[in-house]
Write a structure and sequence with these properties.
Layout lengths: L1 E7 L3 E8 L5 E9 L6 E7 L3 E6 L4 H14 L9 E8 L10 E2 L2 H9 L8 H14 L5 E5 L9 H4 L6 H4 L10 H15 L5 E6 L5 E6 L2 E5 L21 H8 L5 H10 L2 H6 L5 H9 L3 H25 L4 E5 H6 L1 H9 L10 H5 L13 E4 L4 H14 L1
Parallel strand pairs: 1-6, 6-8, 9-12, 12-13
Antiparallel strand pairs: 1-2, 2-3, 3-4, 4-5, 7-8, 9-10, 10-11
Helix pairs in contact: 1-3, 6-15, 10-11, 11-13
């Protein structure tokens, strides 16, 4: 079964063509970035062909057609009919969607309703869906929601201590994100542990970061909330802060709501603390030269990760494994080391050499808790869930 995986952004379209019969091997992938801008970069990669070129693309429908034409031109497929299904990443599924679903007119209506909860993401995801409906008319499409994995959380984990009507009437609650990533790496860890009942904490650390506690492969708690702004500090996001800081910034500092929103989402986190960059590679190089702000940014991130690891150990009543994934989680060995050192009292010990080399198992043989580095593969997880629905 050939599955086209689509991740549609406001001005971009990422795609992968995956063959489920070949252990979900990637036949081709690409990224079209700059839709409706002066110039658009089209990156395409397959086993026998790779290129980068500038193109002029005005709509997501044109972007999809450009991607499909490349698949035909380089003989990845002979016709569109070879594509058995399309799997779409959709950021927000609210409380309604606890798993992936086949896209119908009713599902499209629900995704539109949820735009208020994800105004930056759901509209872009819809653009990709509507483009596929026009270009690949008779091919079934599946929506895979980032929030679905976290719908197993209990009320004690997802409710905020606001007047209850804000939940019942306005659905203000913790939803969590990165669910597709967490689900993938947790399932991989369960295989490695050979324990379906494992208590696992997965740390997806990158420009956007979230930490999830899971038991028996189901989400118990997660750090992101109503929006992706809550939780640990990220590339440019503040993470959790005292809510009253916002009122102080508004009244005492005379900042407008839009300015505060920009500060919290685009100027804080690693960028704000380091005063250097949102890219941990730049920060790490500066820290090696003794830059105090860079050192502080690394310390702060590591400490915040450790606090979530400790609190989720309590929520789970123990830990069998810790996973690090995401761009930073998979590569920043120094952050992993500092974070896990806080948990030495729980019996967490890393093998220094394995950690520096970013091996799959980085815990020491004497460690009571396994620590893994598992590269995330959200596209593969989307393809897996798409295939499961098509086979029903």
């Amino acid at each position: 079964m050939k599955i086209l995986v689509i991740n549609s952004g406001s001005s971009s379209l990422k795609f992968q063509l995956i063959d489920s019969k070949k252990d979900f091997a990637v036949l081709a992938k690409g990224h079209i970035d700059g839709i409706n801008l002066k110039s658009c970069l089209f990156i395409f990669k397959s086993k026998n062909k790779s290129f980068e070129k500038l193109v002029k693309i005005n709509t997501h429908e044109e972007a999809l057609s450009t991607a499909l034409k490349a698949l035909l031109e380089f003989k990845i497929i002979k016709s569109y009919e070879e594509i058995n299904a399309v799997g779409h990443r959709v950021v927000h599924g609210g409380e309604k969607y606890t798993s992936s679903v086949k896209i119908t007119p009713d599902v499209i209506k629900e995704i539109k309703k949820l735009i208020t909860l994800a105004p930056l993401h759901n509209p872009a995801n819809l653009e990709g869906i509507l483009a596929c409906k026009k270009v690949l008319k008779n091919i079934p499409q599946i929506a895979v929601f980032d929030t679905a994995f976290h719908q197993t959380m209990e009320k004690k984990a997802f409710l905020y201590a606001l007047p209850y009507k804000f939940y019942t009437k306005n659905k203000i609650r913790r939803y969590g994100f990165h669910g597709t990533s967490h689900k993938y790496v947790v399932n991989e860890a369960i295989k490695l542990l050979k324990n379906k009942n494992a208590k696992i904490i997965s740390c997806h650390i990158g420009n956007g970061s979230s930490i999830t506690a899971s038991y028996k492969g189901k989400s118990v708690d997660t750090s992101m909330g109503l929006t992706p702004l809550e939780g640990i500090m990220m590339g440019t996001r503040s993470g959790t802060i005292d809510p009253a800081i916002i009122f102080h910034m508004e009244k005492a500092l005379k900042l407008k709501t839009q300015e505060i929103n920009k500060i919290l989402n685009n100027e804080s986190g690693l960028k704000g603390i380091s005063t250097i960059s949102s890219d941990m590679r730049d920060i790490y190089h500066a820290s090696l030269k003794g830059n105090k702000q860079a050192i502080l940014a690394i310390e702060l991130l590591s400490y915040q990760i450790a606090k979530y690891l400790g609190s989720y150990a309590c929520a789970l009543g123990g830990i069998n494994a810790i996973i690090f994934t995401g761009g930073l989680g998979e590569k920043a060995f120094y952050v992993r080391q500092k974070s896990c050192d806080y948990l030495n009292f729980l019996g967490v010990h890393l093998n220094k050499k394995k950690n520096i080399n970013c091996e799959k198992v980085i815990s020491d043989s004497k460690s009571k808790i396994k620590v893994f580095v598992i590269p995330t593969n959200e596209e593969k997880q989307i393809a897996i869930e798409t295939a499961e629905i098509i086979k029903k």
